Structure to design on (503 residues):
């Protein structure tokens, strides 16, 4: 049986070599024993596992399929076959940097026309990755973060003013929409000294619309083959070109304004570092074209995922009044009657941070990352992989693996992140920021920003949800709650500083 399938595998691999899409390496080419890995039943010749598949929610689809097929499985759409991994043991192996590294494939590779060799989309071997990483890493140091804190507070103040207005009018707030305004303004102002004026607009800034268009297009290219694209989605390529041109044009204006003002290094922000700083040992600088790619990368990567993380956290707070009360009590205890916290008071909100971690566990807003073999190896002792073969780690299922998180893994419970509970778990089971050398450079930035904003909002409001709302999650490479609106009640000054629950 195994031998027959193996011959099939070889024949299909031969056929695929001829048709494979440039830049996409099908699982057939790198996994000699692919037949050992289960795939959904009802596979259709040429078309693959498309019965019942959703183009709009491939991640949630994969989650459903993964639960049925187990910790490693494969899916095929047309000529593309992908191996998915979510079991904690296998994912821990893939985190081993001596055997595996980031694979730039699928959605990440589809973003190359926009983000080029910017940090997120650079291939591991591209010299600009190390160069930009070394130049920009100090922009995420503790000292740099302390410098961004007052600007983060300014933007949070704008959000509070907007929400006060909505609550006075008795209107609910559009959580993902407003969190996107907040996080876009925060990265634009702290990183690039640019003000998009998002809170002065009733509709999303065109930058956000173009970005969502570009991300959605990159996601759809994973499932719709290029030849069928024009048939299935007429006009999509043209719209994508327009979105990219808009994003590039915006970035060029931001950079041009700084060059005109004179990039003296006085801002001390990411853009100053890109324009002014030479590599500490080689003296090399980023080229103008690479700066363009880095700016677009940071404007997109620096806000979309944090906005989703904040939105999911607010959703869970509104659904769990006990958690909300405990978080509010902590804010009162740590911040006292200080209206706006100092930098170091943010990290002291340990329970609020657990709320955030638990939200990122259930809905990691960057829901997957890809890893490729550095040399021939065997995954889990049974799945040989050739050098360059890769797998997609499905973070959302890894974060719900019952063997690690228990039978109640689907339940929201911030206490899972109490230090003792964290110490009791194996490493590499919580990976919302990716892994290894290519893990998220903005992790501390995102965590500081999100904890600060949650603290400020918890102090100011009680949140309640429409009881009929059921969480729906939109996918555009990232995850975002869809249609989430909350009702706000301003808290009294006495309630804001009541340190103990029920005090
Ligand atoms: C909750 C918020 C965030 C989440 C969940 C998140 C998640 C991730 C993940 C999973 C990766 C690795 C992707 C891969 O392996 O292919 C990554 C990389 C990256 N992220 Fe984030 N991110 C967040 C916030 C941010 C922020 C605020 C910034 C910038 C200010 C940022 C900038 C980047 C960059 C530049 C990379 C590429 C790093 C490299 O390869 O050197 N991210 N992020």
């Amino acid at each position: 049986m195994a031998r027959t399938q193996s011959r099939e595998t070889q024949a299909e691999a031969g056929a695929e070599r001829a048709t494979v899409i440039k830049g996409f390496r099908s699982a057939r080419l790198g996994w000699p024993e692919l037949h050992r890995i289960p795939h959904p039943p009802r596979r259709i010749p040429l078309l693959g596992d498309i019965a019942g598949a959703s183009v709009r929610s491939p991640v949630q689809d994969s989650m459903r399929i993964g639960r049925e097929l187990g910790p490693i499985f494969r899916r095929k759409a047309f000529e593309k076959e992908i191996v998915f991994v979510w079991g904690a043991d296998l994912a821990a192996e893939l985190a081993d940097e001596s055997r595996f590294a980031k694979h730039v494939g699928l959605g990440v590779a589809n973003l190359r026309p926009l983000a080029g060799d910017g940090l997120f989309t650079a291939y591991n071997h591209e010299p600009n990755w190390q160069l930009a990483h070394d130049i920009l890493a100090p922009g995420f140091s503790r000292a740099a973060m302390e410098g961004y804190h007052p600007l983060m507070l300014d933007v949070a103040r704008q959000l509070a003013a907007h929400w006060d207005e909505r609550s006075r009018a008795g209107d609910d707030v559009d959580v993902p929409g407003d969190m996107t305004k907040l996080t876009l303004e925060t990265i634009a102002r702290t990183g690039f000294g640019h003000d998009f004026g998002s809170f002065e607009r009733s509709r999303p800034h065109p930058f956000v619309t173009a970005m969502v268009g570009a991300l959605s297009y990159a996601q759809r290219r994973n499932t719709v083959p290029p030849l069928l694209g024009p048939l299935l989605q007429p006009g999509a390529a043209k719209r994508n070109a327009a979105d990219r041109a808009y994003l590039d044009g915006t970035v060029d204006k931001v950079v041009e304004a700084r060059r005109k003002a004179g990039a003296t290094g006085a801002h001390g922000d990411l853009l100053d570092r890109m324009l002014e700083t030479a590599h500490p040992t080689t003296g090399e600088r980023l080229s103008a074209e690479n700066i363009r790619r880095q700016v677009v990368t940071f404007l997109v990567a620096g806000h979309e995922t944090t906005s989703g993380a904040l939105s999911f956290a607010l959703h869970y707070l509104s659904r769990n009044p006990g958690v909300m009360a405990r978080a509010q009590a902590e804010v009162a205890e740590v911040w006292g009657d200080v209206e706006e916290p100092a930098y170091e008071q943010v990290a002291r909100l340990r329970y609020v941070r657990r709320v955030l971690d638990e939200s990122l566990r259930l809905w990691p807003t960057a829901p997957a990352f890809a890893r490729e073999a550095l040399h021939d190896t065997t995954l889990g002792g049974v799945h040989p992989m050739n050098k360059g073969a890769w797998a997609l780690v499905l973070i959302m299922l890894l974060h719900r693996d019952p063997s690690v998180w228990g039978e109640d893994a689907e339940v929201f419970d911030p206490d899972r992140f109490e230090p003792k509970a964290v110490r009791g778990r194996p490493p590499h089971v919580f990976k919302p920021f990716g892994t290894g050398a290519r893990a998220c450079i903005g992790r501390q930035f995102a965590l500081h920003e999100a904890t600060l904003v949650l603290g400020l909002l918890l102090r100011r409001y009680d949140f309640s949800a429409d009881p009929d709302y059921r969480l729906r999650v939109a996918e555009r490479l990232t995850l975002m709650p869809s249609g989430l609106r909350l009702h706000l009640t301003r808290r009294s000054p006495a309630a804001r500083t009541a340190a103990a629950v029920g005090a």
In short: DSSP finds 23 helices and twelve strands in the chain.
